[in-house]
Amino acid sequence: METKTYKAHIELKSDGEPGEFKAVFSTFNVIDLDEDVTTPGAFEEQETVVEPWNHEYTLPAGKGVIKFNEKEAWMEGRFFLDTQVGKENYQTVKNMGGLAEWSYTFDINKVSFGEFEDRKVRFLEKLDVVGVAPVTRGAGIGTHTVAIKSGDPKKQSENEDETTGDRGKSSEVQIMRTRIQISEIEYTETEDEH
Questions:
Q1: Residues 37 and 19 in one domain
Q2: Whole-angstrom Cα distance, residue 96 to residue 120?
Q3: What CA–CA distance (Å, rounded) separates 61 from 34?
Q4: Do 16 and 97 belong to one domain?
């Protein structure tokens, strides 16, 4: 089993379901930084997992479907926002913006070797994708994250509280505001007495 990594850029969208994303993870007929050329027809439409950041071999962070055209392959997926690993990966990908890159883990079913643009390369002709993952560094050329659900700001802040484990954060903030207001009242009364 091997991994292939690609650069990606993110565009926030307000429509769709929470946790949804679309990411191009492979471009065809381009020499990548591993001296591989992925050919059109290398992928089949299939459902597969979203692996955690950098292919961390823990619980899956989500799932999606691989689709393709004559130029590229992409995943239309959704992070599991009801799990810790899903929420963390979703929030990280969203926050990384254009710095996020993508990778995929695969088994080779058909490969050949030859020359492409006067360079010796390996042609990846048929692949079985095990999973797709956001990563820190990639080897690919010309790929990107098309979109990720940005979410309703109110729901988003509630989700962020849950992600960090600060479920009582809102009530703590309200208590702090109340204390500040009480302190200001006490300070004002003290000023009046002098």
A1: yes
A2: 34
A3: 26
A4: yes
